[in-house]
Structure formats: structure tokens, C-alpha cells
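ESCALATION

Customer reports they have been waiting on this structure for their group meeting. Please prioritize. Original submission:
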Amino acid sequence: MLALLATVGLAALLPASGTAADVAGGASTGAVALLFFLYGARLSTREAVAGLKSWRLHLTVLACTFLVFPLLGLATRGLVPFVLTPELYSGLLFLCLVPSTIQSSIAFTSMARGNVPAAICAGSFSSIAGIVVTPLLAALLLGGGGGGFSPDSLLRIVAQLLLPFVAGQLLRRWVGGFLARHRALLGRVDRGSILLVVYTAFSQGMVAGIWNQVTPGRLGALFAVEVVLLAAMLTITWYGARRLGFDRADRVAIQFAGSKKSLAAGLPMASVLFGAEASLAVMPLMLFHMLQLLVCAVIAKRRALDPLPDEPLRGQPQPAEPELTGPRAARTTGA
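Update from on-call: job pushed to the front of the queue and completed.
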């Protein structure tokens, strides 16, 4: 997060323009393609197929991600223009269309002693579905004017995201071992690609003068709206999963996988869909990303203290063993 904020500051002070902007744009496009190639190459097809056994859980997470979230996003339309500007509303609605996270969902589910394999598969399925579902929902809900979506942007989505992902899956047999041995290096490649996308998008916004349209008051209002949005999704996923009959471990996975949005997947998509307005469009996603990490970390720590089935409450005194007397005591002690 510090690196993201520093990158935004760099783009504000030294935005890429002219030839430098062309070079940064080309590098950003290549970085996005590489990012999704690595996603495809690292996803084990065998693990994904095995995860289909929990199909009810995965459908629940997908419904939260691509149905409940967009409905809540559409409900915020009434806040325009009094609370949100039309541009910020488009970014907020785009946030609601982005797939779920993988890494943080797994980490928080593990911390809360939930169903980690289900969180892995749910996050992976959401990311795969998002490559197709997010652009289609953007075409339906944002339209040509709201989000800059067009048939040409759909083709760019396919070329920059879907095809590299499929290529990674096809080449996994040969490159999977190499990727597994160099996880740390690939993690830096992931983060570097995301930072490059952020720098390019915010540079375009600075050159176009987009940030002159946003006041601190508007950003504060956006943050307040996102607090309510996250609280609503955390409540819906937790209590809704209970009403659907899921046990505690599955409810933990559903809450963390169904209430969060992926910055890593959303930023490249926004750069394709929104073009020069991507910097303003991704601001809601960046704010929500920071908020969800902070809030979910607190919730995961609290969930870790929940008693599991047949497990006493932590910190509670354990019942003393009954004292044995008479013949039974003699048999137990061997006297």
C-alpha cells in the first residue's frame, strides 16, 4: 500500500507525457499481459477440478461477487450528483463488478481457522470468471458513455487478459515447475506490474486534468459510502451463509472471499476499459482495497478466537477431572 501511494505521488509530480507516455503505455500493456499469463500458469487445473466438490460454496461466492455487489453498486446511483460525481459513481460501480481476491482471502480464512481449500478454489474461480463476466457486466451497466466500454475495449480485454491467461494454462506443464521455484521473484513481478499500471493510469489522469474535478470532500464522501458497502457485504455473506446451512468453516471462507475485491485484477481491466479516465475510475477500488484489508484483518483475528466444534472457549478454565475414589481409583492407579 505504501508503494501504491508512492506511485500515485510520483505520477502527480512527474507524470509521463508525450513520448514517455507512449513508452509507459506500451510497457503497461505488456505488463498486464504478463500478469495474466502468470495467473494462468500458476493455477493448477487439478486443484480447480477438485474444488468443484464444494459447488454450493463457490456458487454462493460468485453470486455475492457478481450479483449482490453490482446490485448494491446500482443502489448508489441515487447519490449522484449530491454525494458522488458521475465519474466517481462509474468507478464505484466498476469496483462492484471486479472479481474477488485470492491471496488475501486465503490468508484471512487461514487466520480465522476457516475452510482454506474452499477459499483457494473460490478465489480462483472468481478470478477466472471475472475475465469474462466483468467486461460483460461493464458493457451492460456502464455502457459506452459511463465507462468508456465499446466492442473495441472488449477485444482488448480478450487480447490482453483472456488470451495470456489461456496461454499460461496451456504452457503450465512446461513452466509450472520454474514458477513454483521462483515464487518470491514472481511476487515482485506481480507488484511491479501493478505499480506500472497505476503510474500509467494516474499519469494519463494528470495530463488530462481529471484530478481537478475531485475535491477532498468528494473523496471523503466516497470513503464513507465504501465503509457502508463493505459493512453490508460482510453482514450479508456471514449471516446469509448461515441461513443457507453452511458450517462455520465454510461461512468464514464465504465471508472473506465474497466480500472483497481484487486490486490486481481490477487495475488492468480498468486501464483497458476507461483509458485516460482510468485514474479516476480506479480510485474507488484502491480505497476499498485498503479498507477491506484493515477491516478483514480485525475480523479474522476475532474469528480465530471462536470456539470450534467440541472445543472449549479460549481463556476459559478447563473443567477439572473428577476425583476417583474407591475400587475405581484402585484399578486406575494399579494399586
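Sent to customer with the following note: The two ends are 67 Å apart (CA to CA).
Escalation resolved.
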